[in-house]
Each structure stands twice: as C-alpha cells, then as structure tokens.
Known about the structure:
The structure is a single chain. By secondary structure, the protein is an alpha/beta fold. The protein has eight helices and ten strands. The strands form three sheets. The protein has a six-stranded parallel beta sheet, with helices on both faces. A two-stranded antiparallel ribbon has the order 1-2. A hairpin with a 6-residue loop joins β1 and β2 (11-12). The longest helix is centred in the last third of the chain and has 16 residues, at 191-206. The two termini are 19 Å apart. Bound molecules: tricarbonodiimidic diamide (TIU). Residues 26, 31, 38, 41, 74, 134, 159-160, 163-164, 189 line the site of tricarbonodiimidic diamide.
Amino acid sequence: MALIDAQPYEYALPADLTHLALVIIDMQRDFMEPGGFGDALGNDVTRLQAIVPTLKSLLSCFRENGLPVIHTLECHQPDLSDCPPAKRDRGKGSLKIGDAGPMGRILIAGEPGNGIIPELQPLPGEIVIQKPGKGAFYATPLQSILQERGITHLLFTGVTTEVCVQTTMREANDRGYECLMVEDCTESYFPEFKQSTLDMVRAQGGIVGWTAPASAVMAAIQTAKPTAV
Ligand code: TIU
C-alpha cells in the first residue's frame, strides 16, 4: 500500500489508483487576474499566482499516469437565474456578479474572465464541473460522476483555500470521501486564513482530512505502480 507522508498521519492511496482524483478548484481568471471577481471584492489577486507551477507539475503527474482530473469553475448563467440575490448583493464593491468588467461579465459562464487560466486548461476527457456555489457538490452532478467512476479518494487544490476549496472538501468529507488538501497547490488572498484552514483540516486526528505537499503526493504515486497508463 502506497502512503503519502501527510499530516496528521500517513494517507493511504487506494490500491487501484484510478479511484483517486485530483480536484482543481476554480483556477479561473476571475480569481487570479485583475479585473475579475476576486479583484472586484477588493482582494490582491496577484498572490495566488505562486501555486501555478507546482499545481501544473501535479496535474502533469496525474495526466502521465492516466489518473482522473476534475476541474471546477464558479460561474452563473447569463440570466443570473442560478445566482441568489443574497450572493449578488453581498459586499460594497463597484462591480457585482453579472456586471460588465474588463474581461467580460463578472463570474458569468462563457465570458473570457470566467475561463480557467491558460496554464491549467482542461484536456478532452477531463471532468469539468460548473458550480453556482462555493462547494462543488451543491447543485452539480459531481457526486453522481464520482459514484459512476468509483472514485473514493480526492486530492484538493486551487483557490481560495478557505472559501471554495475548504467548502468542497468539507462537503466531500461528509459524503464519505477520503480527502487530502495539497498544501502548496492551494492559496488564499489571506495567508493567515490559508494557514488556519490547513491547521483546522488536520486537527483532531484529521477531522476533515489530511494535508501534504505536492512532492509527497507525487512520490507516493510514483511508488504505487499505477494500474492505468
Ligand atoms: N472570494 C473568495 O475568496 N473566493 C471565492 O469567492 N470563490 C472561490 O474561492 N473560488
């Protein structure tokens, strides 16, 4: 059995690695670039860039081993029918969800600014989940897709750590998935929130799951002799 050197203790990979998926949360221009949703909320979006090279390496590892990859996008339909007024009206930013910004309408599906950043573009065959909420299980087919494919183990990456990544990981934990957050493949606009999230995930014996760096994940996958190539 291959083990990831994780906290609070080793994370056991499934014997058949195709039951393990990499979940990449919301690596979209809307959160990563000036002029998008994250910027409109008043955040310094530039600090999220630091994880891109490491996340790209982890994605390459999954692709080279033929393992499942799931990308998510936070977005709303152009008519905002899936955007609760409570979400659109929250905050005092100058641009709200659906307003026209420099990269198109803010947080609207299909707009240039809503797309995944070029470095992490999904390949054909990879799962892409559009989600209207912070959690990727809410109002999406994610649970049924995981069940159909027999996926039981999930590695969480992306942005932002304490909002969409943590919400999705908690949703997955309650649904019985074995969850691990990849420490250097997730980032927040607030470094102290990222640290607190990692701490709370692995506290109490792993109350929400495990955390580990990407290097430990990739080392374990290499020793596991993938069943799929
Ligand atoms: N604002 C913030 O930190 N995050 C979000 O609104 N969405 C995601 O985390 N993707």
